[in-house]
Amino acid sequence: MTNFNRLLCVDVELTCWEGPPPEGEVAEIIALGIVDLRTDDLEIRREKLFLVKPALSRISPFCSTLTGITPKEVAKAPALSDVLRQVRKTFAQGDWCAWGQDDVLIRESCERAGAEFPFPGRFHDLAAQMRLLLGLTYRLGLDEALERFNLDFEGQPHDALADARNLARLHMEIARRLR
Predict the structure, then answer these.
(1) Residue 86 CB partners (closer than 8 Å, separation 6+)
(2) What is the pTM (predicted TM-score) of this model?
């Protein structure tokens, strides 16, 4: 069932390396942050961070420094297919957005894991929409977009839940100005 007064703000963090991945390893989702935003009253209904145990790669020291996620944390995390099943059960109710093309990353990850895609609604790339609305010829970062609307970045960059929250805050600010 689609709820037209809801928007899921989503961010993913992937395994990463300083340079190319080691032989046989690929960038995999290790964290998925979701903020469930009511678009009618611009209130956050709920939010959740899902950690994911990678199947094909290890978390490098570079990745831990960037994301704050350690190999020990994800060792206890569920597999991607289990996380996506929980996401679909708990959050799949309407349109969803991300800052960039996280839809492609999630679709590729679903195919690799043999998992069902968790978001049935329409995807919105807010970075592309912002670039078009502001008439920019470059892709601005979420931090720069927040600054343009006099909002400070809250939390740690490259934290999936903090990035999803900041995306929701940006959406709420733009919506308030348009109403």
Answers:
(1) 50, 78
(2) 0.95
